[in-house]
């Protein structure tokens, strides 16, 4: 990538005006960002021109004319070789310009000024530090897998993790007889409980049958009575009453309701047809 060099001031001439201070100009009329070419809007012709020089800053000499197409020559702008003084805090000016640009940007194109990254997951703990149920087979497999992949565990020598896994395997060897005996004892107890339940189950069923069963239950289960065609259940048969039990009380109640709702005048008692 080519190196960007500041433009050289090829003349010591100036336009004999007082030096232009950036603090007296609008913040959007110049660009002094670090790493970018310095430029400014000429106060006379209002065109963007480059600021030349490294220590002594001047507006680059430029020409402007509105009648070039009519045959006239270019006219040098009075703002050429204007001295420029940077009397502002560049960092504060840059942060303010960034804020203005961010506010002027459409909402769908905005991005957060600060990027938040998802934290990396913590590395997995080594096998020697994992707290889990230790059996003889798991301790043996862990020790052999470590010995196979570790270059420092050679012969009777062990690294730190290899020594921990080795001691864990030896401890599991010593505890295996007691663990096997406890496991066999638990299995014997489970078999004894299952045998007792199997012995008690038929006797219990026999007691229940003797209490609630017998010939009556067997006869009721085996009896199949056919329903006569056309018969109606006793809960909704023709023997249900169709007339009120107290006809006079029923008529009085009907008359009271008629007077209450005002639908009729004096009603005659209604007798139900039987």
Describe this structure in words.
By secondary structure, this protein is α+β, with helices and mostly antiparallel strands. Among the domains are: 20-106, no CATH class; 127-210. It has helices spanning 90-104, 136-149, 160-212, 215-222, 247-261; strands at 20-21, 30-31, 39-41, 48-52, 57-59, 83-85. It has a 6-stranded mixed β-sheet with strand order 1-6-5-4-3-2, with no helix packed on it. It starts with 19 loop residues before the first strand and ends in a 13-residue tail after the last helix. The relative contact order is 0.06.
Features:
alpha+beta, six-stranded mixed sheet, 38% helix
Record the SSE blueprint.
Elements: E1 20-21, E2 30-31, E3 39-41, E4 48-52, E5 57-59, E6 83-85, H1 90-104, H2 136-149, H3 160-212, H4 215-222, H5 247-261
Parallel strand pairs: 1-6
Antiparallel strand pairs: 2-3, 3-4, 4-5, 5-6
Helix pairs in contact: 2-3
User: Helix- and strand-based class?
Assistant: alpha+beta
**Helix share bin:** 25-40%
- Run of helices and strands: EEEEEEHHHHH
The counted number of beta strands is 6
> Shape, please?
flat
The Rg value, from CA coordinates, equals: 54 Å
Distance between the termini: 117 Å
Q: What are the segments in which pLDDT stays under 50 over at least 5 consecutive residues?
A: none
| Residue share in β-strands | 5-15%
Mean pLDDT: 78
Number of helices: 5
Reported for the largest beta sheet, the result is: 6 strands, mixed
Q: Strands across the major sheet, in which order?
A: 1-6-5-4-3-2
